[in-house]
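User: For a benchmark we're assembling, each entry needs the component sequences followed by a predicted structure for the full assembly. Here are entry 17's components. Please fill in the structure.
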Amino acid sequence: MTNVSMTVNGKSVSGEVEGRTLLVEFLREGLGLTGTHVGCDTSQCGACVVHVDGKAVKACTMFAAEAEGAEVKTIEGMAIADGSLGTIQQAFQDYHGLQCGFCTPGMVMSAAALLADNPRPSEAEVRSYLEGNLCRCTGYHNIVKAIMAASGQSVEPVAAE
Amino acid sequence: MHNFELVKPTTIADAVQALSGEDAQPLGGGQTLIPTMKQRLAAPARLVSTLGIAEMQGVCTDDHGRICIGGATTHASVTAETASTFPGLSGLAAKIGDPAVRNRGTIGGSVANNDPAACYPAACLATGATIVTDKREIAADDFFQGMFATPLEEGELITEIKFPVPQASNYQKFEQPASRFALVGVFVARFGDGVRVGVTGASEDGVFRWSAAEEALSGNFSAEAVSGLSLPAEGMIGDLHGSPDYRAHLVKVLTGRAVTAAS
Ligand SMILES: Cc1cc2nc3c(=O)[nH]c(=O)nc-3n(C[C@H](O)[C@H](O)[C@H](O)COP(=O)(O)OP(=O)(O)OC[C@H]3O[C@@H](n4cnc5c(N)ncnc54)[C@H](O)[C@@H]3O)c2cc1C
Ligand code: FES
Ligand code: FES
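Assistant: Structure for entry 17:
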């Protein structure tokens, strides 16, 4: 076991991990931050997406010890300080961008990474950026609408509707 | 997953030292290796991470005008840093997997793995790139030896890949929609002295050069030059995503599209 320290949602945290401890295990089991989901555990679905030093990564495909010293942000860090929903989260609620909600943490974190890079993406850019985020409930149209709305753009009926 | 020791060196020298231990293996972005270890298809005793090694990061140009990319450079960094100097390669890197994979996965890990459907090997072959390790330099033509097979020895580290920059180039990928790897991918590179074509995803022998197309395109760099050619289906991969005939056909179609997009 080795000790690992990082900043998670602005708070310094540390804990004991094995070499093989995944970042997602450290977040969920070590820190009790169960908002980050494990959908596949095979790097395919994106339910586990978090930000490490500002970049979207799959927390099931990175070791906790690799995040030593990093700034990590999870879905728990997306709410506004007073506890109300952040812009992207609120848009997911307003546009019914979730059904069972299992994929939602990863969708929101991917959307946040996209909007940080590209504040006014086209619908095609949103769809392309979400390539690694699978929604088993297949609610993609509303997810895309939510992200368009969160970026302050008008929400047209989307392609294929 | 079996447990292991994770080592995070900051220099190539320290990495090479750490890799000399028994059952030690490089860890790039882990986008292939971690899923493999979860399935217990790999169980190294020690992983040596390349992502903290500054001398293996980033893109530069050498005295021969070649674009040199550090072995631990992520796909996202390759996309950004070669956009103006080598758009064909930048476009290839931009289509690998998804954004999260591109933020972790490295060019060295991809080339070392030599997955028969990986993208970079097509660019390495089509440009006649040189794979540089801690021990030697290997020409791409000698490096890709069939599915997942390379001349790399245990613990040998890819530190850099050097690409001669073509006058025009383009990569066309027909995505396998579930894995997002290439069902077939074709990289076409036009140099002053001829054209080279690298094909991935198609053959049971892994990435290969399509020499008939190279010959035709060197005389006439247009999609029509390949439209009359045909590739034998024998030796092509057949699976539920595409038959050998289908893949052989795709190689031709994608080569034509790459030529049109490159010129
Ligand atoms: C969902 C998904 C989609 C993907 N889609 C594509 C795609 O479309 N096209 C594509 O090409 N790839 C794709 N990949 C694979 C991805 O590009 C990987 O990043 C890449 O194959 C391996 O790079 P890595 O840095 O993650 O290597 P790792 O997984 O860390 O390592 C892979 C292998 O290379 C060895 N290795 C790592 N670095 C070095 C080095 N510097 N020198 C020597 N050996 C080394 C390791 O020991 C291991 O054997 C996809 C992966 C996922 C999960
Ligand atoms: S749980 Fe990480 S990609 Fe599915
Ligand atoms: S809302 Fe159910 S998986 Fe996406």
